[in-house]
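Deliverable D5.2: sample structural annotation.
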Amino acid sequence: MLDKIPASGGVFAPTIRYNNGRFYMVTTNDTTHRNFYVYTDDIYGEWSDPIEVDQGGIDPSLYFEDGRTFFISNGQDDYGESGVVQCEIDIATGKKLSHSKSIWKGSGGRYLESPHVYKINGRYYLMAAEGGTEYGHMVTYAVSDDIWGEYVTGDNNPILTNRNKAPYIIQGIGHGDLIQDKNGDWHILSLGFRQMAIWMPFHSLGREVFLSPAHFDESGRLFAGLDGTTDAQYEIKGDFVQNELPVFTFRNTDPSVDWCYLRKYHPETTSCRRTSTSFAAPI
């Protein structure tokens, strides 16, 4: 339950993967500082109990190949090396089948996190976030012929960022994940935030999910976005159906106090006392 978890707590960066008819959701419980995953055969149905993995770090991901499962996160490996950390696990139990190993230290940005591994055209692509989730956020990548490395940093990093697009309303783009549509075209899902106005560096909606185009050149280099940036909208080619989204408006003349809080309002944990000139801080 998240109703009493403070801001920036709870689960971090959940990732969904599909393998052999089963969906897996892997994430970090920041309250316990543990990584775990759950699974289901029906994405709209019931999910399994959590299965913990004895590997630290945050923002984990799963990669499946030839009956094997690899667990990727950031942090320190079993030898004390930091970076993007990888180990093989038993997907039925979460137990490690190999020592964890640091396979990439990033392109030089701070806060290396949110790693994902893909095999595309016979090569392994490792994509990650760097720069922190503020205005310096960016998506970077490296490539290897072996899943354990050596991973060579892309010479066109960062491939997606709005850090040099200061006046633009969309900022903080990072934490990318590659997807391929039914036509074989590539896209990157990323997170970011929407400023209240071009020159007002405040945002009230929190992080949103953005979609950007991606492609590979003849040499296998990965490119993303519109000249490496994310816009508020872009046209997707092909025959796609977009479901109508419900619209919510604040027309209630007596809105619930829950709207004033990030989580559910708990009056038993809050008190407010009025003085002659002002309200004292809640305790």
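Annotation notes: The first strand starts at residue 11 and ends at 19. The chain has no helices and 16 strands.
The annotation will be released with the project's public dataset once the embargo ends.
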